[in-house]
């Protein structure tokens, strides 16, 4: 029990814990606080912006925990359910059902890939190789269905499932790095405020708000939820992201 990660403890302590709800509510809170700080800075109230910024940091940490839980638990779960259903269909010689499940899985993978792009997760290294490997084995399983080779289908689907797990672990590592980058923007904005650099603080806050928006929307897409419009409208003039 003592070795449990913080997110696991949060699950135990929070009744009816829902990672997606935590991620969305903390994002909205953080976004409102950052917007408040942005307005304070633009109004010349630099010191007044420090309070909302400090509160936003805690909300960003909650969003990170929620996002990690969203990505580590339900993400790819639906994909695995389609994989299982496809294997069961093959065992029952129901090729039409198997093809239908694989088609649904491909749609999920497309949304998943778009979500990673939205979050700024680079498709390089192990992330790229595991994703491409899973895709290749899914295509091979589809070809095996057309060739009426059920043993080949089962083998390819099992390999694809293993690649999805490896892909998920690689993705979690990068997501934590992205949230660290967001917190860095917030800390830089605080440093700029303390140095009476309003322009720099505004630029850093805009970058932080955009990253939070992309992390929230991207995590939903990775989970398999179609993106929706957000209320985040940062002042993107003369800013760079990173």
Walk me through the structure.
This protein has 2 domains: 6-72 and 173-223, Four Helix Bundle (Hemerythrin (Met), subunit A), CATH 1.20.120; 77-171, Four Helix Bundle (Hemerythrin (Met), subunit A), CATH 1.20.120. Helix 2 (19-42) runs antiparallel to helix 3 and helix 7 (150-194) runs antiparallel to helix 8. The chain is built from 8 helices and no strands. Helices cover 78% and strands 0% of the residues.
Would you summarize the structure shown here?
The chain has 8 helices and no strands. It has 242 residues and is an all-alpha fold. Helix 3 (50-72) runs parallel beside helix 8 (198-223) and helix 5 runs antiparallel to helix 8 (198-223).
Give the quaternary arrangement of the chains: single chain
Under CATH at level 1, the class of the largest domain stands as Mainly Alpha
Terminus-to-terminus distance: 37 Å
Number of strands: 0
Per the CATH scheme, the topology name of the largest domain is Four Helix Bundle (Hemerythrin (Met), subunit A)
What is the beta-strand fraction? under 5%
Mean pLDDT, all residues:
81
User: What's the total helix number?
Assistant: 8
Outline the low-pLDDT stretches: 1-15, 229-242
Largest sheet: none
